Predict the structure of Arginine deiminase.
Amino acid sequence: MTGHVDSEVSPLRTVLLHRPGPELARLTPRNNDSLLFDAIPWVGRAQEEHDAFAAALRGRGVEVLYLGQLLAETLAVPEARALLTADVLDTPRLGDTLRERVAAHLADLGPPELARVLMAGLAHEEVKPGPGRPGGLVYQLMDSHDFVIDPLPNLLFTRDSSVWISDRVAVTSLAMPARRRETTLTGAIYRHHPRFAGTELLYTPELEHVEGGDVLLLAPGILAVGVGERTTPAGAERLARRVFAAGLAHTILAVPIAQERATMHLDTVCTMVDVDAVVMYPNVADTLRAYLVTAGPDGAPEAAGPQPFLAAAAAAMGIDRLRVIDTGLDPVTAEREQWDDGNNTLALAPRLCVAYERNVETNAQLERAGIEVIAISGSELGSGRGGPRCMSCPISRTPLDATG
Ligand SMILES: NC(=O)NCCC[C@H](N)C(=O)O
């Protein structure tokens, strides 16, 4: 079995991360908004912070896989290389002459260099036309800093571009144009990397929008799916249909969330830290609603509700109540710490999570509630608006009933 994840808090065995690299160096004050960053990160410090995050995971026995390395290995497979190369060339923006020129440039690259270009993009000034290698009109009219291939700085947030549900992986359908190409990379890795041979894809990028940050595995067979800026109602329905057809879950809570940047995914307001506990933004705890989605007689998803999210989740999970640990004590602190991903914890096991150290109040609340917090710094990493959960895609967790 290549991967298996049955809940948010089962002991984490293998995780997919992306060590940020030259794609972050592409961010400027002119493009950071469209590339979904709120500031210009200091790349070297972001890498140090990320290395510390990875070390903290390894220190707890977690196997860390890196997307960049898997991609380079995947590009050694001719079919994957052909597919990913064709994908970046397939844009009307290039025109025929420049397309041929860029194709020749990419053909000269070995797998690690090509992986780097697919992640960091390619700027006009990095494509050198020459005798017999013209750039053409398009090349001449471009600014030297324009991108011939757009960079993918949000690869850092591996949570969103794929999500494992039981032993299948959903390669998601990302909503924002700046992120769409990410899933061509994750899709190629899962299809062609030998490590994932035999893995069945539960979802593919051409389907309705679903992002991994919206998918919470509340317990085996029970999912919560945020519906908002990134995951559409149609995406939630399609995922439900596929999950039911594959027998991976029997209940899905579809949870509408405000279509705002601060709440772009469900995991920005709520993550699980124990089998019966969440850390949650208090400003939404009482207002969040859920539609209960189950399979009708013909297998098609049927929705009932809405009802209060916390009560619906507890009922679906067969527990009296879902304990709620607040982000901060007062509304202003809560708002600040929610913005800085205080709710976005990564559970390594029940009552053990990774969180940004800056969210002092929230982390103290977690500790008071008996949750051990491994605090990491994220001053640079957080500039893309994502915390430890966003930066990690669990591939394998030990099922809770196997842990004794
Ligand atoms: N699950 C998450 O909340 N991921 C964070 C994604 C941040 C990224 N800059 C984005 O806007 O998509």
About this structure: Residues 43-59 form the longest helix (17 residues). The two ends are 21 Å apart (CA to CA). The chain is about 30% helix and 20% strand. The first strand starts at residue 12 and ends at 17.
